[in-house]
Specification:
Pnp Oxidase, Chain A, 5 helices, alpha+beta, elongated, 25% helix
Length: 167
Amino acid sequence: MQTFEKFEENPKTLLWEQLQNESTVMLEVEGHTDFMQPMSARPDLSSDLIWFFTDRNNRQIGELQGSPAAHICLASERNKIWADIRGRIQVSDYREAIANKWSADVEAWYDKGKDDPDLQLLAFIPEEAEISVATANPLKYSWETVKALFGEQKRPEISEQKRIAFS
């Protein structure tokens, strides 16, 4: 199924699939980060959560308290999908998430593995997202550009945006 069709049918599922495939996102936590930080997202569709592993000594989010507002920026030029996901983030000690989302690339950061005292799990609770999808078809892109250049339409119709809410 093409990206546009998936986007029309179920934009939330497309977003979760993209998070699974891309994994690297930019994360900003209100009151904690000066700029967005690159992080590896570990989405969990069954719980509508996005997990992050970090270090308790992380100078910007290592001392996170409460459930501050946060947002994630996802950008995939390759798949022509972009998203801004807003929600809240909090420290979690949910051992099942640690077990399920653990991988060799996570383990490389922690000398004592899943029981490392510096390991900190963060749970991002998405509230809403705006997703943008553009055509990856070069013929469609060119055709739409030509139609706009010659006045057949005001602008090329090569992308769509949708806002979704999480429950």
